[in-house]
Amino acid sequence: MDLRSEQPVRARPSPELLARLRAGKALLRERRTALPLPEKVAQLLLLQRLQLPLIRTQRPLRSWERPWEIQP
Amino acid sequence: MASSFADALRVVNSLKAEGVVEDYAIAGAMAILFWTEPVPTYDLDVLVFLPGSTGSLVSLEGIYDWARRNGHPTDAEHVIIAGVPTQFLPAPSALADEAIRTAAEMDYDGVRVRVVRPEYLIALYLEPSARTPKRQARAAMLLEWPRLNQAELDAILKRHGLAV
Question: What ipTM describes this predicted complex?
C-alpha cells in the first residue's frame, strides 16, 4: 500500500510560523532557566511527586527513590 | 520544620571544611538544575577527591564513618543528608579530576557551592562507561544551552578522546 498516494494534500505551516513556534519554545526554556535556584528546586520537588507514581507502575522503586521531604 | 536544600549543601561544604574530602563538585541532574532547567532526580551526586587517595584504591569508609558520627543515615550507597539522598563518587577519571578542579563557585540561597560546569557535565555524560539513554538525553539538553562554551567543550572532548 502506498500511504503517500492515499493521503489528502494538506496545507503545511510556513517556515515563518515554524520559526515563531520554535522561538516561543526557546523563550519558555530561557525563562525556566533564568528562574531563581530555589524556585527550580521547588519545581524539582513537584516533578518528583508527579513522576514517582508513574515509575512505580513500570518497575519497583529503589529504596532511595522517594520525594525529598525538604523545603526548597 | 523540614530541612532545606541549602541545609544539605551546608553539610556537603562541612565535609570539605573538616577534611573528610579534599574537594568536591556537585554533578549529575542537580548540577544541570544550576545551569538550565530542573530534570527529575532523586539523589544528589557529588564528585569528590578523597584525602590520601593518590596512587591507591579509594574507600568511602571515611565518608560513611563521618556520616555515622554526625547522625546521617545511609541507604544503598547513599548518605541521607538533611533529607537528600546523596551519593559521593571518588573521581573515577582524569576528566572527572578536571571537572572538580574547574567547578564553578555558585550561590544557593546564601550558601556557596561548587558545581561542575556544563561543558564538563556533557563530557562526563559522553564517557563510554556512562553512556546510557538517560545520560545521552541530558547531554543533548545541555548542548542546546545558549551560553555553552562550544570551544571549551571541543577542547575537553579532544583532550579526553570523546565525541558527541
Answer: 0.91
Question: Between B40, B43, B109, which is nearest A64 by CB?
Answer: B43
Residue A65 contacts B, CB cutoff 8 Å? yes
Cell of B12: 556537603
Per-residue pLDDT at B58? 82
* Helix or strand holding residue B84 (H, E): strand B84-90
Contact B42 A48 (CB under 8 A): yes
Contact call for residues B79 and B86 (beta carbons, < 8 A): yes
* CA B164 – CA B157 distance, rounded (Å): 8
**What does the alpha-carbon distance between residue B57 and residue A49 come to, in Å, rounded to a whole number?**
38
- Tell me whether A32 touches chain B (CB under 8 Å): yes
pLDDT tens digits, residue range B42-87? 999 999 999 986 666 788 999 999 999 999 999 989 999 999 999 9
* Domain residue limits, chain A: 36-72
CATH architecture of B5-116: 2-Layer Sandwich (3.30)
| Residue spans per domain, chain B | 5-116
Residue in B with minimal Cα distance to A39: B38
Q: Report d(CA B20, CA A72) in Å as an integer.
A: 26
